[in-house]
Amino acid sequence: xxxxxxxxxxxxxxxGVRRLAYLGEFLKGRGIARENIxxxxxxxxxxxxxxxxxxxxxxxxxxxxxxxxxxxxEPIQYGDLLLTGSGETKEDIGKxxxxxxxxxxxxxxxxxxxxxxxxxxxxxxxxxxxxxxVAQKTQMGKGEIIVxxxxxxxxxxxxxxxxxxxxxxxxxxxxxxxxRIDALVKAKQEMLALLEKKxxxxxSQAVTKGLDLKVQMKDSGIEWLGEIPEHWExxxxxxxxxxxxxxxxxxxxxxxxxxWPRYVRITDVTEQxxxxxxxxxxxxxxxxxxxxxxxxxxxxxxxxxxxGKSFRYQQQWGVACFAGYLIRMRCDLEQVSPEYVExxxxxxxxxxxxxxxxxxxxxxxxxxxxxxDVVMPLPSLKEQRAIVxxxxxxxxxxxxxxxxxxxxxxxxxxxxxxxxxxxVTGRMNIN
Length: 431
Prior knowledge:
Elements (H helix, E strand, L loop, with lengths): L15 E4 L4 E5 L8 E2 L3 E4 L1 H6 L4 E2 L4 E3 L1 H5 L2 E3 L4 E4 L1 E2 L8 E4 L5 E3 L3 E6 L4 H8 L2 H10 L6 E2 L2 H4 L3 E4 L2 H46 L7 E3 L7 E3 L3 E4 L9 E2 L14 E3 L20 H4 L9 E4 L8 E3 L7 E3 L3 E4 L8 H7 L3 H10 L10 H5 L2 E4 L2 H44 L7
Parallel strand pairs: 4-11, 5-10, 19-22
Antiparallel strand pairs: 1-14, 2-12, 3-6, 4-6, 7-11, 8-10, 8-12, 9-13, 15-16, 17-24, 18-23, 20-21, 20-23
């Protein structure tokens, strides 16, 4: 028996095992795209909203579309389970929300709808978001750059099914317990946001205004940048490189061969700018050769929810290459410090440009050409290094506090996931 199904070996009396195929029917959202969203009208949901707007349940939708567009879409009703048909990683694919609203609403493309009346919908949503179900959906996901899952696969997902009264008791218990955990996480996230805001202000001041508060300033000529020190320049990324900005390898991340170059994807990068050990993938040397990274190379995410995110490669992580949905900037070290570029990519001045230039199609996109046209204020190399050093010194206490809070949030997230798994597989006695 595969690891994701071992829970089946020890179910409580009265519990059984069911397959989604036997619960009801699968439907597919259609007809509503991002450009069809309006300020009011009939409630609507896009697949991306399931990732960003909702947890396991909702009784109202936050977006709307016109009645005319809704006519060509798929209606949803109370108790429907809504799952994402597309995503950026196999681990995230098929996220589920139970629609418990009384208003008639509509689902856009890549929303998979499970309509059934045999299982408590809220309990089933907890089940479908639990670790055993996520493990099964991960195996079902198809694709690397954009991952897809289909109702024909989801029909084969199996889960533990207690009596209806137990389902409702478990759902009620999980509602209360996860709400407590979520409140703790929210408080910590607010603390984290304050620290990040303070650190961002420190970086932005240093990178766009310099360290000498008495220096003569001049108008940069760029509205979102404002005044900069008189002796600074404003330069585009493409004029600060030794090579043209380059897309990575368009290869599947399937191999785990430690002697081969690591295959870096944006999902491998932590919030602290390091690489995750648990997501290691590699690429054959002959394929990786044109995409090998050098010390100080900057990688940018070019699509999806992470568009604009940056990463500075360091040789201490070993030989590595990069994936196709990343763009590499190889800095001209006679003009610019990679550490200084990395700092700039955390400032409002940088993100204003990414936001203004992102193509809002089904998935946001920012091309290599657009990254090349990003402009940044540029002091001398000596001043760049002084700024990097000052920010590192003054920001270190903030980073330590951020790291501690982030670790605490991670612990709560793992505790929440373990609680849900234990409850929906019968390993926890809930009276």
